[in-house]
């Protein structure tokens, strides 16, 4: 007979511990019409019927800007009937085919960007529209670039391989790289610091150009500025205060040091 004591077994059943699941990230509700988050929806100021213009607007949208919360290009294409955006770092002939392909007579093409030493620009206010359009017989195509200042210069330079053959470079005025830039509105809410004096947002630039190119330009400008003001007002509540750029701070410190030495 086996007299060895039998081992006692623990009858307790150990169930696996539940694994902790990360909470689902909160997703912002997006307006199905203007495609902006509902708290900053602009449908109440965007016209139900897009504004019709004689000028066709083509915007080259840098890939980095397409999802930027302050990009004004989507608002422009929603507001203007004849505004189109293409994403890329340079214009290609295919981007222009629907604008200048088989049309007769050929449209007048202008691209909006400040002048450079190697590529001068005509102030858009000095353009003689009746003369270059044959008293309105030729359409006008306006090309704008939506990107940071650095990227926009690169985009223009790359695109000029095509544009320099037939397009006119126009500008809104003087850009001074030695003067710090203002905001979307110099005296109002700060959304996005511009790098130099004279730089403006894409929507502002197109608005000011259309105010010159369109017969009812003042009316169009008033409506577009109203939309942009509302965008600034709504967005400002969700932004941190704009900080001075380190480069500008360093420049300002050097100027202060120089002034103290000359005192």
Describe what you observe in this structure.
By secondary structure, the protein is of the alpha/beta class. The protein has seven helices and eight strands. It has a six-stranded parallel sheet with strand order 2-1-5-3-6-4, with helices on both faces. Helix 5 (202-213) runs antiparallel to helix 6. 25% of the residues are buried.
- Helix-strand makeup class: alpha/beta
Task: Give start-end ranges of low-pLDDT stretches.
Answer: 175-190, 194-198
Please describe the biggest sheet, giving its number of strands, its sense, and whether it closes into a barrel. 6 strands, parallel
Tell me the helix content. 25-40%
> End-to-end distance, in Å?
112 Å
Strand element count: 8
Report the radius of gyration as a whole number of Å. 28 Å
The share of residues in extended strands comes to: 5-15%
Total number of helices = 7
N to C succession of SSEs: EHEHEEHEHEEEHHH
- The largest beta-sheet arranges its strands as 2-1-5-3-6-4
Mean pLDDT: 79
Give the overall shape, derived from the CA principal axes: globular
Q: What would you say about this model in short?
A:
With 263 residues, the chain is α/β, with parallel strands linked by helices. It has helices at residues 73-79, 93-100, 129-132, 149-163, 202-213, 217-236, 246-262, and strands at 56-61, 83-87, 108-112, 122-123, 140-146, 168-171, 176-180, 196-197.
């Amino acid at each position: 007979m086996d007299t060895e004591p039998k081992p006692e077994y623990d009858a307790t059943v150990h169930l696996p511990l539940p694994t902790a699941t990360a909470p689902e990230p909160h997703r912002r509700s997006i307006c199905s019409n203007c495609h902006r988050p509902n708290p900053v929806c602009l449908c109440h100021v965007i016209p139900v019927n897009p504004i019709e213009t004689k000028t066709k607007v083509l915007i080259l949208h840098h890939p980095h800007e397409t999802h930027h919360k302050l990009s004004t290009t989507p608002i422009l294409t929603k507001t203007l009937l004849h505004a189109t955006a293409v994403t890329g770092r340079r214009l290609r002939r295919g981007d222009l085919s629907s604008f200048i392909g088989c049309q007769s007579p050929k449209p007048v093409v202008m691209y909006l960007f400040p002048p450079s030493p190697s590529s001068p620009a005509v102030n858009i206010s000095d353009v003689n529209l009746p003369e270059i359009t044959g008293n309105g017989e030729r359409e006008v195509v306006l090309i704008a670039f939506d990107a940071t200042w650095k990227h926009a210069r690169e985009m223009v330079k790359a695109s000029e391989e095509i544009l320099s053959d037939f397009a006119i470079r126009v500008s809104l005025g003087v850009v001074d790289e030695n003067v710090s830039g203002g905001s979307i509105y110099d005296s109002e809410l700060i959304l996005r610091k511009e790098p130099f004096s004279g730089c403006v947002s894409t929507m502002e630039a197109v608005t000011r150009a259309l105010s010159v190119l369109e017969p009812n330009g003042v009316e169009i400008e008033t409506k577009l500025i109203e939309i942009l003001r509302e965008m600034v007002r709504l967005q400002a509540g969700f932004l941190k205060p704009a900080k001075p750029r380190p480069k500008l701070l360093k420049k300002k410190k050097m100027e202060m040091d120089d002034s103290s030495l000359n005192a």
